[in-house]
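The protein record filed here.
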Amino acid sequence: MAEMDTTFLSEVNRLSGQHIETCYHCHTCTAGCPVSADMRYGPDRVIRLIELGEKARVLTTPDIWLCATCETCSARCPNGIDVAKVMDTLRHLSAAEGYRSPEPRILLFHHLYLAVVRFLGRSHEAIMLGLYKLRSLDLLSDMDSGLVLVLRGKIPILPRRIKGVAGVRQIFEAAARADKLAQGTDHARE
């Protein structure tokens, strides 16, 4: 019997701070996931693919980008695995290692969201909508829905920065430094 390569499992465990191998695949995470119906695998099978060392398959699945990070999976896991943290780690790895998402607009939305949060310290729907429409060149679809939300006051037009925006930027900078340090450590191991 061939020995399984656990390099990817070890990497995800280290970066997420989780012990994925404690998962006994009860499917509770997937059963509670509000977006699992739109996923190819669902959280449970993504965890299994990590255990099997299927790095390319995991880092290119749209599932990691569809995850809403609602943490329902983490709250319900009987073994205390923070599945949402694992999914976040996988998104980070996918982007850092240059994997292409089968749904490029999901990655575009992810990058725009982070840019707006870094700038304002919070999300802002009108800015997100405008940036997304311009960058994706999807200018006219769902315009009627957006207009209704603006007219009802559900989407404020003018953004407000939070008072602690400098602290949010420090978090982004610390994360970038940690990425560089981790990349240096990974290159040293090769």
